[in-house]
Design a protein that fits this description.
It is globular, with a radius of gyration of 37 Å. It has a seven-stranded parallel sheet. A six-stranded antiparallel beta barrel has the order 3-4-7-6-5-8. The chain has a five-stranded parallel sheet with strand order 22-28-27-25-26. The N and C termini lie close together (4 Å). Helix content is 45%, strand content 11%. β17, α42 and β18 form a beta-alpha-beta unit. The protein is of the alpha/beta class. It has 57 helices and 30 strands.
C-alpha cells in the first residue's frame, strides 16, 4: 500500500515514499529480521523470549530515528507487532515510554489503514485502563520529555477512542472524562449558574458529592485527575498557542499539534454524549476566543488552523439543547440571544452610568459586532473585567490571571458572546449549487492528491452519532457537494485536455483536438431573467440559449441530442496562453496550462427545434433537425447569476459573454445538483421522520426500540400466504415455538399415524407474551375457471432465519437483515413484499436499491409471484434492462392499462352477447359499470336466491350448474365447469366464476380515470399516485425526483431497501421523506433494510472524503455498529462448502444449505483441476512483478498471462465461456487482461472471451460458476487489506475459485489470515488433470490419480502447455471432421456458427491452424522487455482512446478503491 509522508496539513507527496518496497527488500529489512526472531506469525514456535530493550531499540532507531516515516511504521504494523509483541507483553508498572508510544503508533496506523484496531485489546482487556491512564499522565506531565510529534500521536489516539464509543472497553474509560463530574473544574459561580438552568442536574450533582465523601484519598485523587484532565489539557494547549509569535520561525510539529488538538475538540463537540457537559467546560476556558486572538490564526502557516477554528466555533454554538438533546429552532436561538443581551444590559444598567444608553437601547440595534465594539471600546479594562465576572464568564478580578486582564481579550470575549449569529440556513439558501473555478481547484477545500490518512483536514466527519437532523443533513450536504466537485474537476480536466485549446494568431481560441463530452460554443445568450420572488434578492429564474455545431460521429451526435431535461452541463471559459502545437502535461497544474478562467453550471431544459421551440420528452419520436448546429435552452443558477451581475456592476467582467466550451457529463454520474437541492429542501422544511426512527438515525437511545418486538402496534395475527411449502416446513421454521392448531383443523386433517397434515396457506397468530403459535389453514378463494386464474406460488423452502426475517418485515418497525453471499437476500425481500401486498392491500410499498441491476433482479422475481402486474411500477431508466417483454415504466404501465382496458371491454361485450342484452354497453368504462349494476348484478342475485335457499326448497346439485346465468360466457373455459360431485364444490366454482366477472368490472372502474385524463403525463402521474401498489426505483432516482414526488402527493407506507450497505448515508435517508407528513406525522410503518456490511461500502472517489470524513459509511453499517438488532441469514446456497469456508469466518454463523452439500453439481469435481479452489503463486516474469504505467494504475503481466492461459485451458476442456469470469482487484489489471484476451483468444471461435472481465468492486452482487482471480500486487498488499474486498472476491464463485497472487506477500497479512490459512493448506503450484473433460464424473472428495496429475510451476510452463494442448485439439479435429469437438459440451451438438471442416478442406484448415500456432508460439515465447512495454502501452492507448473505442469507454469506470493504496 503506497503512502505519502505529509509534512503539513496538505496532501503533498514525499518522494521518499513514492517507490514501493519489493518483497526482497522487505525480507532483508532489519524490522523483518527482528520480527522473525521475536513475533512474526510465520515463525511462530521459534520465537525468542520478550526483550524490553528490543522495543526501545525499534522505537528509537526505526520509528523516532526515522522521523516517524510512515513506511517504517507500516512494516512494523504489517508484521503484527502490536498483536504478537507489544500488547501481550505490556506491563503497567515497568513498561517504558517507548513501549507505550509504540502501542499508540500502531493503533493510529491501523486506523489510518482503516483496519480493525481494538480486537487485540478486547481479547486481552485487563491492562487497557492502565494504558489509558498512563497516556493521560504522559500528555500532561513534562517529566516524560515528549516531543510535539509524540504528543500529537497521543492526541490522535485519544481522538480514535472518543470516536469508538460503541466499543464497551473504550467507552468505560472515555465516559469518565466527559461526565457530569467534570464540572468540578468549573468556578463555583459558573457551576451554580448551570445547575440553576437545569435543576434536574442538581440532584445528580449531590449524588456525586455524596459518593465522593465516602471515598478514600487515593480514590479521590484518581477521580479528580480524570475529571480535570480535559481542562488541564486545554490549558496546556493554550499555553503552547501563546508561545507562537506573529513572525519568525515556527515549529511545524507545534502547528500540527495545535491542528490535531482542534480536531479533537471538534469531534468532542460534534457528539452529544461527549459535548453534553464538556461544552460548558470548554466555554469556561474561553478556548475559541483565545484561539481567535492567537498569532497562529493570523499567520499563513495557520490557514488550516483557522479553518478548523471556524468549525469548532460553529459546533460550540450549535443549535441544540446540550442537556435534553432537543434541536433549537431559529426562534429558540433568537430568544437565547435576546436573553444574553438583556442580561448584559441589566448588568451595566445600575453600576455603569457610561453604558446607560446601551442598557436602554433595543436589542436589534446593538447586537452587531460593530455596535458592540462602539459601546465597549471606551471602557477600561477593570470595568470590562467586572462585567465579565458579573456574567459568570470570568472569576472575580482578584482571582484572574494576567491574560484575563487584557482589554483586547475582554472585548472579544464579550462581543463574540453577544453578537447576533448569522443564520446557517440563510447562507445555505444563498449558496450556488454548482461549483465555480474558485472552489474546484482550491486545494484546501477539495484535496487533489490521494489522501494517505496521516494529516488533518477541515472537513466534516460522518460519525456514529449526530447532534440533530439539521447537523446530519448539513454534514452530508457539504461532503456530497465536495465529492461531486472533485468528480467534476476530473471531468473538466479530461475534456479540456482532449480538446487541446490553443491561442490563435488573431488572439482567439482554436481547438486542436476534440472530446466526446465537450464541444466549442458557437453562440450564447441569456434569454430570460425572472423577477425575484417576494423576500428574495436573486432572480426567480434565468434561462439562456447555448449553440454548438455537432460535426461528430453519429453515435456521439445522438448522445448530445438525447440530453435529458434536468441534466447538468458546464459552461467553460478558456484563454490558453500557448500557440498551436503546444503540448499539455497531465502531471502539471491544469489551470495555467489551458488558461481556464470561468466555470459555471447550467441545467438542460431541452433542445430547440428549427422553429426555436423546446422538443418535449415523451414516447413520441423526436423530430429530425437538419444541419449540424444544435441549440439547447438551459437554466442558469440564480444565486450565481446575481453574484456575477453584482460583480459586473462593480466594473467586473461579464462572465456570460466569455463562454467558449460546453461540457456534459455521464448521466449516471451527473445527479449531484438534484441531490443537493433535495438536501437543501429538506433542511428548509420540517423533517418529519417517524418517531420510532428518529433517535436511531441520530444514533441515540435504545438501539432495539424500533424492533417489532418493542413496537406498540405489533400485529399478532398474520397471513403468511405461500411462504410455507407445507405444514412440516412451518414446524421446521419455528424450532423454539410450540405450534398449536384448532381442534377442528387438526381432526379434519389428521393422518393415520396421528400426524397433522394441514395444507398451506396458513394464518399464524403469535402469542406476544409466550412462545406458542396458533396455526389456521385457509383455502384461497377460487378466482375463476381458467388455468391462468390459479395463483402463482413460492417454491423456495425458506430456512428458520429467513422466516424470521420475513416475519419481522411484515411487522411494523425497523427490520435489518444481514445477508452473507448466497443466502437468498432477494428471495426474502420478494416474499416480504408479497406478504405485505396480500395482508395489507390498501398499503403501498416503495422498493429502493443501489443499482439498476439489483432492482431488475428483484423486480423479475416479484413478477413471478402472485402479484397483479397492474400494481407494479418501475421508476427510472433501468427498466430497459428487465429480462421481460413487458414494460414496467410509467409510460409502459399507462400503455398496459389502456390495452388492458380494451381487453376487458371485449370481455364485457362478449358477456353482453352471451346474455342477449341489446345496446353498446362496452363502449366505455362508465357504460360497462351501468351494465354491471343493471344486468349482471341483478342476474347474480337472482341466481343466489334460487340456489342458496334452505333444504326444504329442493335445490339439487344439478341445479347449481343448470341455473348458472353465465354458463355461455364461460364456454371457452375447460369443460365441464361444474363437476357435479357435491353442492359445496359446485357453489365454490360458481363463486369463483362470479369473482372473475366482478374483477373485470372492478378493474374497469379503476381504469375509468384513464378515460377522463387525456394526456400521457397526467395518466402516468395518476398511475404513480393512486394505482400502483409496489413502486421500485434506485436511491439516485429517489434523490433526483423527491421534489416532483412530494408535489404530486406521492404516498407510501413501507420501504424495502436492497443493497442497503452500498448506499450512501444521505441516499438512504432521502427515501424516508418522499411524501408530505400528515398532521405532522410521517405515515411510514415499516422500513426493511437488507444488505451486508461485511462486503464493499459505497464508492467514494476522493480518498480524503472516504478516509478522513468517513463518507463511505452507509447508514446500514452505522446502525449495525450502534447495536440495532439484526436478522443474520445463516445458510448459503451458492458455493461449495469448501469455497464458503474461505469467507464464512467473517460472519457470526454461516452454514450451507443441503443442495450445496449433496447436489450433483456441487459434489462433482472441477474437470481438469485437482482442487476446487487453489492459491497459485506467480513469480516475476522477466524480472518484473507489479508495474504502474500510470499513477495507481497497477498491472501484473505475469498474472494476466497466467489467468488467460488457465481460461484457455478450461475452454479447451469444454467449459462454457459464459460460466467463467475473470476478476482482478485493480482497474489497470482489468485492462491488461482484456488486452491479453483480445490478443490470445478473443477472436478464436474455439475459445472466445469469458463471461466477464471486471474488477472485484464492480462485480459485487454478481456470481458465476468459475472465477479466476488476479490479486496483482507484489510489493504491498494494497487495498485488498480491506477484508470487505476479500469477502467479495472470494464469494463470487459457485464451483471453482483459482487465485493468482504473490503468496509470500499475502500470507503474512494479519487481516487476511483466516482466508489465506485455508488457501495455503493446499499446494501453491497449479495442479491439473488434463486427461479429464468438462463434466467429469469424478467426485470432489475423490483423490485423483497421482500419475495423471500435472504440476504447473510457473506461467511460461502453463502457456506452453496450453499451446501444445490447443495444437493437439486442432489436429484431432482436422483428422476427424465428424468427431464431436472436445471443447463442446459432451451432450450438446456443435454450434452452427463453427463449421465442421470437410475431408477435402483439411489441408487448408490445418494450415490456418499452423498460422495460429506460429502466432501463439511467438507471443508465448517472447522474452524481451519491450514486448511487455508494447502490451502495456497498448493498454494505456485502449484506456485513453475513447473516440475509437466507444464500447470500451462505456465499460471503463474507475473504481475508487484503486486509490486506497
Amino acid at each position: 500500500m503506497e503512502n505519502k509522508d505529509r509534512n503539513d496539513g496538505s496532501s503533498n507527496k514525499n518522494n521518499e515514499n513514492k517507490t514501493p518496497l519489493t518483497v526482497d527488500q522487505i525480507n532483508s529489512d532489519r524490522i523483518t529480521q527482528v520480527a522473525s526472531k521475536y513475533w512474526a506469525p510465520q515463525t511462530c514456535g521459534n520465537h525468542m523470549d520478550f526483550d524490553a530493550s528490543i522495543v526501545d531499540q525499534i522505537y528509537h532507531q526505526e520509528v523516532q530515528g526515522a522521523k516517524f516515516m510512515i513506511r517504517r511504521i507500516m512494516m512494523l504494523e504489517f508484521s503484527q507487532y502490536l498483536e504478537n509483541y507489544l500488547w501481550p507483553n505490556y506491563k503497567p508498572d515497568n513498561s517504558s515510554a517507548s513501549h507505550v508510544l509504540s502501542i499508540v503508533i500502531m493503533v493510529n496506523e491501523k486506523f489510518r489503514e482503516r483496519v480493525s484496531a481494538w480486537q487485540i485489546f478486547q481479547k486481552l482487556p485487563e491492562n487497557f485502563p492502565s494504558l489509558f491512564k498512563q497516556l493521560m499522565e504522559m500528555s500532561l506531565d513534562e517529566k516524560w520529555g515528549l516531543s510535539f510529534k509524540e504528543r500529537t500521536m497521543i492526541l490522535i489516539f485519544f481522538n480514535h477512542c472518543f470516536n469508538s464509543l460503541e466499543i464497551d472497553l473504550i467507552r468505560d474509560q472515555v465516559q469518565k472524562l466527559v461526565s457530569l463530574s467534570i464540572w468540578t473544574c468549573l468556578p463555583e459561580g459558573r457551576r451554580e449558574q448551570e445547575l440553576n438552568a437545569f435543576p434536574k442536574l442538581r440532584k445528580f450533582w449531590k449524588v456525586i458529592q455524596k459518593k465522593d465523601s465516602k471515598e478514600n484519598e487515593d480514590s479521590k485523587a484518581k477521580a479528580d485527575f480524570e475529571r480535570r484532565f480535559l481542562q488541564r489539557l486545554m490549558h496546556k494547549f493554550l499555553s503552547l498557542l501563546a508561545t507562537i509569535p506573529l513572525e519568525g520561525d515556527i515549529d511545524v510539529e507545534a502547528v500540527h499539534y495545535c491542528e490535531r488538538f482542534l480536531e479533537l475538540l471538534i469531534d468532542l463537540e460534534a457528539l452529544l454524549p461527549t459535548r453534553r457537559f464538556f461544552n460548558v467546560v470548554m466555554d469556561d476556558c474561553h478556548l475559541v476566543t483565545r484561539c481567535h486572538l492567537s498569532m497562529l490564526n493570523q499567520r499563513t502557516e495557520g490557514k488550516l488552523f483557522s479553518q478548523l477554528l471556524d468549525m469548532l466555533k460553529f459546533y460550540a454554538r450549535f443549535e441544540i439543547n446540550d442537556q435534553t438533546g432537543d434541536p433549537l429552532t431559529d426562534h429558540d436561538m433568537m430568544q437565547l440571544h435576546y436573553d444574553r443581551i438583556t442580561a448584559l444590559q441589566k448588568a451595566v444598567f445600575v453600576k455603569y452610568s457610561e453604558l446607560r444608553r446601551f442598557a436602554l437601547t433595543n436589542v436589534a440595534s446593538i447586537n452587531t459586532r460593530e455596535a458592540l465594539t462602539k459601546h465597549f471600546e471606551s471602557l477600561s479594562t477593570t470595568v470590562l473585567q467586572d462585567i465579565a465576572a458579573y456574567l459568570k464568564l470570568l472569576p472575580p478580578p482578584d482571582n484572574s490571571d494576567n491574560d484575563e486582564k487584557n482589554k483586547h481579550f475582554l472585548m472579544e470575549l464579550l462581543i463574540s458572546r453577544h453578537e447576533r449569529r448569522a443564520s446557517q440556513l440563510e447562507a445555505l439558501n444563498e449558496m450556488p449549487l454548482y461549483p465555480t473555478e474558485d472552489i474546484i481547484w482550491n486545494e484546501n477545500i477539495v484535496p487533489t492528491e490521494y489522501f494517505s490518512g496521516e494529516g488533518c483536514l477541515a472537513l466534516p466527519k460522518l460519525n456514529l452519532q449526530f447532534l440533530t437532523l439539521h447537523d446530519y443533513l448539513l454534514r452530508n450536504f457539504n461532503l456530497f457537494r465536495l465529492e461531486s466537485t472533485y468528480e467534476i474537476r476530473q471531468d473538466i480536466e479530461d475534456s479540456v485536455f482532449r480538446m487541446k485549446p490553443w491561442k490563435g494568431e488573431d488572439g482567439n481560441v482554436v481547438f486542436g483536438g476534440w472530446a466526446r463530452m465537450a464541444q466549442p460554443i458557437t453562440a450564447f445568450s441569456v434569454v430570460e431573467v425572472g423577477k425575484p420572488n417576494i423576500g428574495e434578492k436573486q432572480p426567480s429564474r434565468v434561462r439562456a440559449d447555448v449553440s454548438v455545431i455537432l460535426d461528430v460521429r453519429n453515435d456521439v451526435k445522438s448522445e448530445w441530442e438525447n440530453l435529458r431535461k434536468h441534466d447538468a452541463c458546464f459552461l467553460l471559459t478558456v484563454r490558453p496562453p500557448g500557440p498551436p502545437g503546444t503540448h499539455f502535461n497531465f502531471r502539471e497544474p491544469f489551470v495555467p496550462q489551458v488558461g481556464l478562467v470561468y466555470v459555471r453550471g447550467c441545467e438542460i431544459e431541452g433542445m430547440l427545434d428549427h422553429l426555436g421551440r423546446i422538443i418535449e420528452e415523451g414516447p413520441d419520436p423526436r423530430p429530425k433537425i437538419p444541419g449540424g448546429q444544435r441549440t439547447f435552452r438551459v437554466w442558469l443558477d440564480c444565486n450565481q447569476y446575481k453574484m456575477d451581475m453584482d460583480r459586473v456592476s462593480q466594473n467586473g467582467e461579464d462572465v456570460y459573454d466569455s463562454f467558449n466550451i460546453l461540457m456534459r457529463r455521464k448521466p449516471k454520474e451527473n445527479n449531484f445538483k438534484a441531490v443537493l437541492e433535495t438536501i437543501r429542501d429538506l433542511m428548509n422544511t420540517d423533517c418529519v421522520v417517524p418517531e420510532w426512527l428518529h433517535d436511531i438515525i441520530l444514533g441515540y437511545g435504545d438501539p432495539g426500540a424500533a424492533h417489532y418486538s418493542k413496537m406498540p402496534n405489533q400485529i399478532p395475527a398474520l397471513d403468511f400466504n405461500d411462504t410455507f411449502l407445507d405444514y412440516a416446513h412451518l414446524k421446521e421454521s419455528f424450532p423454539e415455538h410450540e405450534i398449536r392448531t384448532n381442534e377442528e383443523d387438526g381432526k379434519e386433517k389428521e393422518g393415520r399415524d396421528g400426524s397433522t397434515k394441514l395444507a398451506p396457506p396458513f394464518r399464524l397468530t403469535f402469542n406476544l407474551q409466550g412462545k406458542d403459535i396458533l396455526v389456521e389453514p385457509h383455502v384461497m378463494p377460487s378466482r375463476g375457471p381458467y388455468p391462468f386464474n390459479e395463483p402463482k406460488k413460492n417454491a423456495v423452502r425458506f430456512t428458520p432465519t429467513q422466516i424470521e426475517a420475513i416475519r419481522s418485515g411484515m411487522q411494523p418497525g425497523l427490520t435489518m437483515v444481514v445477508g452473507p453471499p448466497g443466502t437468498g437476500k432477494t428471495d426474502v425481500a420478494v416474499q416480504i413484499i408479497s406478504n405485505i401486498y396480500h395482508n395489507f392491500p390498501e398499503q403501498r410499498t416503495l422498493i429502493v436499491t443501489h443499482s439498476n441491476m439489483a432492482l431488475n433482479q428483484l423486480f423479475e422475481k416479484i413478477m413471478a409471484l402472485d402479484i397483479d402486474e397492474r400494481h407494479l411500477l418501475r421508476m427510472g431508466h433501468g427498466e430497459e434492462e428487465l429480462e421481460t417483454e413487458k414494460d414496467f415504466s410509467r409510460y409502459g404501465r399507462v400503455n398496459y392499462v389502456l390495452g388492458k382496458r380494451l381487453e376487458l371491454l371485449d370481455h364485457v361485450q362478449r358477456l353482453q352477447q352471451s346474455l342477449g342484452v341489446a345496446g353498446d354497453v362496452a363502449y366505455t368504462c362508465e357504460t360497462a359499470g351501468h351494465f354491471f349494476r343493471l344486468h349482471i348484478l341483478a342476474r347474480w342475485e337472482e341466481y343466489l336466491a334460487r340456489v342458496r335457499s334452505d333444504k326444504s326448497s329442493g335445490v339439487t346439485i344439478e341445479d347449481v350448474g343448470r341455473l348458472f346465468p353465465f354458463a355461455k360466457f364461460f364456454e371457452d373455459a375447460p369443460q365441464p365447469i361444474f363437476k357435479g360431485r357435491s353442492y359445496v364444490e359446485d357453489m365454490e366454482i360458481a363463486d369463483g366464476c362470479w369473482r372473475y366477472i366482478r374483477k373485470i368490472f372492478s378493474q374497469l372502474e379503476e381504469f375509468r380515470a384513464f378515460e377522463l385524463l387525456r394526456s400521457g403525463l397526467d395518466r402516468s402521474r395518476y398511475l404513480l399516485v393512486r394505482e400502483a401498489k409496489i413502486i421500485a426505483m434506485t436511491c439516485t432516482h429517489a434523490a433526483l425526483k423527491r421534489r416532483e414526488l412530494v408535489e404530486l402527493g406521492f404516498k407510501y407506507d413501507n420501504i424495502l431497501m436492497e443493497e442497503a450497505a452500498q448506499i450512501l448515508e444521505i441516499e438512504t435517508f432521502i427515501p424516508l421523506l418522499l411524501q408530505t407528513p400528515q398532521d405532522g406525522f410521517n405515515r411510514l410503518k415499516r422500513w426493511i433494510m437488507i444488505g451486508d456490511h461485511h462486503q464493499l461500502p459505497p464508492v467514494i472517489k476522493n480518498m480524503a472524503f472516504q478516509k478522513y470524513s468517513n463518507m463511505e459509511q452507509s447508514l446500514f453499517t452505522r446502525v449495525v455498529r450502534l447495536g440495532v438488532p439484526t436478522v443474520d441469514l445463516d445458510a448459503q446456497g451458492r458455493a461449495r462448502p469448501s469455497l464458503c469456508s474461505l469467507y464464512q469466518w467473517r460472519y457470526k454463523k454461516l452454514g450451507n444449505l443441503e443442495h450445496v452439500i449433496s447436489g450433483p453439481e456441487h459434489r462433482v469435481a472441477n474437470a481438469g483441476f485437482v482442487y476446487d479452489f487453489q492459491l497459485i503463486n506467480v513469480e516475476d516474469f522477466q524480472g518484473i512483478g507489479e508495474s504502474e504505467p500510470n499513477p495507481y494504475f497497477f498491472q501484473n503481466l505475469a498474472e494476466a498471462e497466467y489467468v488467460v492461459a488457465v481460461f484457455m485451458y478450461m475452454r479447451l476442456l469444454g467449459y462454457p465461456a459464459e460460466k467463467i469470469s475473470i476478476l482482478t482487484t485493480y482497474n489497470g489489471q482489468k485492462h491488461l487482461i482484456r488486452d491479453v484476451v483480445n490478443t490470445r483468444c478473443a477472436n478464436n471461435p474455439l475459445i472466445g472471451r469469458p463471461s466477464k472481465i471486471d474488477t472485484v468492486d464492480k462485480y459485487q452482487g454478481q456470481q458465476n460458476d468459475y472465477i479466476l482471480l488476479s490479486l496483482v500486487r507484489t510489493r504491498a498488499v494494497g487495498h485488498l487489506r480491506d477484508v470487505r474486498r476479500l469477502v467479495v472476491a472470494t464469494s463470487r464463485a459457485r464451483l471453482g475459485l483459482y487465485v493468482f497472487a504473490r503468496t509470500s506477500l499475502f500470507a503474512n497479512c494479519f487481516e487476511l489470515t483466516p482466508t489465506f490459512r485455508s488457501l495455503l493448506q493446499r499446494p501453491t503450484d497449479l495442479r491439473l488433470l488434463p486427461v479429464e473433460t468438462y463434466r467429469t464424473e469424478r467426485l470432489s472428495t475423490q483423490e485423483p490419480d497421482a500419475d495423471a496429475t500435472l504440476v504447473i510451476n510457473d506461467m511460461p510452463q502453463m502457456a506452453t502447455f496450453v499451446y501444445d494442448l490447443y495444437r493437439k485439439k486442432v489436429e484431432a479435429i482436422a483428422k476427424d471432421p465428424n468427431a464431436e469437438k472436445p471443447w463442446a459440451k459432451p451432450i450438446e451438438p456443435m454450434q452452427e456458427d463453427v463449421k465442421q471442416p470437410a475431408a477435402e478442406e483439411s489441408d487448408s484448415d490445418s494450415s490456418e491452424a499452423e498460422v495460429e500456432e506460429v502466432r501463439i508460439i511467438n507471443e508465448i515465447e517472447e522474452e524481451e522487455a519491450p514486448g511487455q512495454e508494447m502490451r502495456q502501452e497498448s493498454v494505456k492507448k485502449t484506456k485513453k482512446d475513447e473516440e475509437v473505442e466507444k464500447k470500451e469507454e462505456e465499460e471503463k469506470e474507475e473504481t475508487a478503491a484503486v486509490a486506497s493504496t
